Amino acid sequence: MTPDSILVVEDDVVIGSELRTALGSAGFRVTWVQTGADALEATAADGPDLVLLDLGLPDIDGVLLCREVRAQVPAAVIVVLTARTAEFEVVVALDAGADDYLTKPFRLAELLARLRAHLRRRPSVPESAAAVSAGRVRLNVSARRAYVGGQEVALRPKEFDLLAVLVGAAGTAVSRDRLMAEVWDEHWFGSTKTLDVHVSALRRKLSDRGESDDRITTLRGHGYRYELEG
Ligand code: CA
User: Where are the alpha helices (DSSP H) in the chain?
Assistant: First the structure.
């Protein structure tokens, strides 16, 4: 099996070389770049499995770069590193396509655990079903493709996983805890705001594809329900 490839985008030489060494010893194929321009070149050339992206880069705004990287490699996992603790920036980065974030300073063991969890979960969620559908939405889980009325919708990895769980349980309430555990891993200890950000993005993408009714109902204090009938 080919080892997973990780692109590290970090201008801090100390952190960058530490990450390269640590991830390399952990068995990943690592490429380290220090600028946004080099990051875009590397994603286009190599199509990494995971991008570890520092938001504070010298040449390009981290959130903009995140959006660009997401567009170039739709299936890759993107984890952003931020020195800034502002929740707003994290939310913006998640909305720009990031799957997860870590705040500096972070512990290497924690970083490795998170990256492994993301890469492990990447291929298929849920593994039990090859296809799930509700109303006009149909998901081919093994191919990780989503359709509304026969038209394909481009979804980010977490959006796909989230929709797969909701559609798989269509007509019934799914708790936030279950969604966080199934889509983000039981070891998630960040803000659950990321769940709401992903639901908003899903609603937007489904309506862009002509789904006129919002079928994802918010259940205050509980979670979400995907409606069978509009
Ligand atoms: Ca930096």
Answer: 13-25, 36-46, 62-72, 87-95, 108-121, 157-168, 176-184, 193-208
Asked whether the beta carbons of 19 and 48 are under 8 A apart, the reply is: no
How confident is the model over 37-65, as pLDDT tens digits? 999 999 988 889 999 999 999 999 999 99
Q: Are strands 29-33 and 77-82 parallel, antiparallel or unpaired?
A: unpaired
Compute, in angstroms, the gap from residue 11 CA to the centroid of ligand 1. Answer: 5
Cα(79) to centroid(ligand 1), Å:
14
Q: How far is the CA of 73 from the centre of ligand 1 (A)?
A: 22
Does the model's pTM come out above 0.90?
A: no
pLDDT digits (tens, 9 = 90+) for 62-85: 999 999 998 888 888 999 998 756
Nearest 5°: the CA angle 42, 35, 18 is 90
Which tokens hold the place of 154?
């481009």
